[in-house]
Amino acid sequence: MTKVKICGITNLEDALAAIEFGADALGFVVAPSPRQITTSMARDIVSQLPPFICKVGVFLNSELSQVQETMSLCNLDMAQLHGDESPEFCAVLFPKAVKVFTADSLPDGRELARYRVAAYMLDRDKGAIADDSAQSRIWKLAFDIRDYGPVILAGGLTPENVRQAIEIARPYAVDASSGVELEPGKKDHEKIRDFIAAAKNG
Question: Do the beta carbons of residue 152 and residue 120 sit within 8 Å?
């Protein structure tokens, strides 16, 4: 069964709703973003969560020491790395790193294999237009790199398209943020419920 991560969590209410509906992981954005929260906010939310939920910090070109300190301070299980982090950077964090690529930044197989990470994430370029062809390209690329390790599919996923995405990409997990929101940082609980149901049950 495909795992589901709900990202951009900014409050306890949304976190608990996602867990109730069956989310396997929650993402907390500490990088610059409309969904950015402070380390103290992340720590406070995480401290009130039930066990067996994976807590993921989202970073962008942070210093290694800052990533490690934030993960420790907030009791995070994984670091999701969206920047220019090198294979050597990721190796220090193994097995707690997820390296994120876009369709345009995805390296060839030889270079990809140098990344010692728990999983690869394929996301949409934040400046790209979210059209059907761009989505299809990401889904097909996700399928193509599965031999290198677990793949998490992200970028423009919604309750309406996640099933099709899974059928094409066959990912280990899917990740939703804006696709299940009322506004940046505030989740739509019905969309979370419908997204998780579509991802896990078809």
Answer: yes
Q: Residues 135, 158: contact at Cβ < 8 Å?
A: no
33 secondary structure, DSSP code: S
Q: Which residues are catalytic?
A: 7, 123
Phi, psi dihedrals of residue 142, rounded to the nearest 5°: -60, -40
What span, in angstroms and rounded, lies between the C-alpha atoms of 147 and 162?
22
pTM of the model: 0.95
CB within 8 Å of 176: residues ≥ 6 apart: 4, 5, 6, 7, 154, 157, 158, 162, 192, 195
Residues 6+ apart with CB under 8 A from 147: none
pLDDT for 130: 64
Mean local confidence (pLDDT), 36-40: 97
Strands 151-153 and 173-176, sheet pairing: parallel
Q: Are 157 and 179 in contact (CB under 8 A)?
A: yes
Is 3-201 in CATH node 3.20.20.70?
yes
β-bridge mates for residue 6, sequence order: 26, 176
- For helices 12-20 and 39-46, angle between their N-to-C axes, nearest 10 degrees: 40
Percent of the chain with pLDDT over 90: 93
Domain ranges of the chain: 3-201
DSSP code of residue 66: H
Indicate if the alpha-carbon torsion angle 184, 186, 190, 194 is positive or negative: positive
